[in-house]
Amino acid sequence: DTAVSQTPKYLVTQMGNDKSIKCEQNLGHDTMYWYKQDSKKFLKIMFSYNNKELIINETVPNRFSPKSPDKAHLNLHINSLELGDSAVYFCASSQPQGPLTDTQYFGPGTRLTVL
Amino acid sequence: QKEVEQNSGPLSVPEGAIASLNCTYSDRGSQSFFWYRQYSGKSPELIMSIYSNGDKEDGRFTAQLNKASQYVSLLIRDSQPSDSATYLCAVSGATNKLIFGTGTLLAVQP
């Protein structure tokens, strides 16, 4: 069984469109994340939710809106897509166990291409 | 100054040799340190985590942490062609937010 899954795997769309990426984890973790990996392979956190509550919100355009309907799901909606949004988006999850950061498990990624 | 710095490589080593990957970080308050491996077109997967100064060994992998020097490294013994990948160093402080380096591309030559 896949621990962290994302859909779709590939997304090709035109500039100006609105699209969503879905993420689900079956690990029972409380915390979920969205990361963006650009063409130079730099992986940067965008958002984090703990038990449906937003806890990390990096400097991301407000065209990006995460939503967590329950602690096993974290979706990412992107409005008015721009060329610079083309990247691989990774979802991840972890189970906080104290003051130290626990391992984050990554989904397979969604490759978004904006034309 | 980047928060987490790695040499982008490529680092080329012959099969069976020791590969040494290095990482420095800027935040002295960092408490958690990770090495992830990422094959081309795949997602990052955890190789090692380390929280205390010193060495931590797991099979062919050894992570080394020196908080005074703000330095963390990964040694891969008996390197295999299947170890060829990008290795990402990640560092976290009290916020549970992982800051990644840009990764080092390792190429193990048969």
Largest sheet of chain B: 6 strands, mixed
Average pLDDT across residues of chain B? Answer: 93
> Which structural class is indicated by helix and strand composition of chain A?
mainly beta
Strand content of chain B: over 45%
List the topology elements:
The complex is a heterodimer of chains A (115) and B (110).
Chain A: E1 4-7, E2 10-13, E3 19-25, E4 31-37, E5 43-50, E6 53-57, E7 64-70, E8 73-78, E9 87-94, E10 105-106, E11 110-114
Parallel strand pairs in A: 2-11
Antiparallel strand pairs in A: 1-3, 3-8, 4-5, 4-9, 5-6, 7-8, 9-10, 9-11
Chain B: E1 4-5, E2 11-14, E3 19-25, E4 32-38, E5 45-50, E6 54-58, E7 61-66, E8 71-76, E9 85-92, E10 98-100, E11 104-109
Parallel strand pairs in B: 2-11
Antiparallel strand pairs in B: 1-3, 3-8, 4-5, 4-9, 6-7, 7-8, 9-10, 9-11
How would you sum up this structure in a few lines?
The complex is a heterodimer of chains A (115) and B (110). Chain A has 115 residues and is an all-beta fold. Chain A has no helices and eleven strands.
Describe this structure in words.
The complex is a heterodimer of chains A (115) and B (110). Chain A has 115 residues and is an all-beta fold. Helices cover 0% and strands 55% of the residues of chain A. In chain A, strands 2, 4, 5, 6, 9, 10 and 11 form a 7-stranded mixed β-sheet that branches. Chain A has a 4-stranded antiparallel β-sheet with strand order 1-3-8-7, with no helix packed on it. In chain A, a hairpin with a 2-residue loop joins strand 5 and strand 6. The model of chain A has no long low-confidence stretch (mean pLDDT 92). In chain B, the strands form 2 sheets. In chain B, strands 2, 4, 5, 9, 10 and 11 form a 6-stranded mixed β-sheet that branches. Chain B is an all-beta fold and 110 residues long. The N and C termini of chain B lie far apart (36 Å). The A-B interface holds A 31, 40-45, 48, 55-56, 90, 94, 96, 99-101, 103-109 and B 31-32, 34, 38, 42-46, 49, 51, 86, 88, 92, 94-100, 102-103.
